[in-house]
Design goal:
By secondary structure, the protein is an alpha+beta fold. Helix content is 68%, strand content 11%.
Length: 295
């Protein structure tokens, strides 16, 4: 089992535990806001299952039907998770509206508050772990899962603050009002997840700063060549695809140009990790004088 799958299994286990704690908190209090918090965690469980499936599929080696691998499965998982987040926001908004129309005072046992707060603390730690390792391993599924759980953390904070203010202010509609703000926050988070995941599926340009680093690495390791141009790159899950044209002196042998290509490929992999690199070698007349200069 690879490291990403281990984290995904951890997410599923933690989500189930947190769901049980938040459901207990809602049943003890009858709070609409706590109900919204528990409902969001239910989506976390479904999303964790989806991430597990996507990470397993993306780890499969390339085959005849998928010569570039199965890495985009992670983006599909993130898209599904974003869509679930949007549906969750709608369900919470409905409950908030019903609570606004028919306000009632939630019960306030300390056990319910304690359970919800403890669940939020567990989520905070796990969200930071997922985001950290998701970025390190370039896993869209883990990053999306961590960001989703982080929205759950902010939901818990808002819910607990609003829940505590109801008895202090005597304003019964504060409970569904907090739930309404939770729905808006989740809606915004879901949009962001969908936007980023669809961008990955559409092969949007990699971060400009990362592209600049790749161009620098090519420039510093292309000694003997004339220039590199038409540099293109995209990231699919944990794999970076890089392709460009390398212009060399017309009389250079194939062996010598191959040595330069090997040197560039080694340097690029040291920089980005797992990578698929395609270099098209061209003779000097093909130089465009607008590409990556050789240092």
């Amino acid at each position: 089992m690879n490291r990403s799958l281990k984290l995904a299994w951890g997410s599923l286990a933690i989500s189930v535990v947190v769901l049980g704690m938040k459901t207990g908190a809602y049943l003890l209090t009858g709070s609409v806001a706590l109900y919204s918090d528990a409902l969001e965690t239910l989506i976390n469980v479904v999303a964790a299952i989806g991430a597990l499936i996507a990470l397993w599929f993306s780890a499969l080696p390339a085959d005849a039907n998928h010569p570039y691998g199965h890495h985009k499965a992670e983006y599909l998982s993130a898209v599904v998770e974003g869509a679930l987040v949007l549906l969750t926001s709608g369900a919470i908004a409905r409950e908030a509206w019903l609570g606004w129309v028919h306000p009632h005072a939630p019960a306030t046992p300390f056990l319910g508050i304690g359970l919800n707060g403890a669940a939020g603390a567990i989520n905070l730690v796990w969200a930071l772990v997922l985001i950290r390792y998701g970025r390190r391993w370039k896993s869209p599924a883990l990053i999306a899962g961590g960001r989703h759980i982080m929205t759950d953390v902010w939901t818990t904070v808002a819910v607990l603050v609003g829940f505590a203010l109801v008895p202090l202010t005597g304003y019964l509609r504060l409970d569904p009002l907090v739930a309404g703000f939770v729905a808006l926050n989740i809606l915004w988070a879901g949009y962001g997840m969908l936007r980023e995941s669809v961008g990955g599926l559409m092969d949007e340009v990699t971060d400009p700063e990362a592209v600049g680093v790749l161009r620098r690495v090519i420039s510093e390791n292309a000694g003997g060549a004339i220039e590199a141009h038409d540099v293109r790159t995209r990231t699919v899950g944990s794999v970076t695809f890089v392709e460009f044209h390398l212009v060399v002196p017309g009389r250079m042998t194939i062996d010598d140009s191959h040595v330069i290509c090997d040197r560039i490929e080694t340097a690029l992999r040291e920089q980005v990790g797992d990578a698929v690199i395609n270099i098209h070698v061209e003779p000097e007349p093909k130089a465009k004088m607008v590409g990556v200069p050789v240092l």
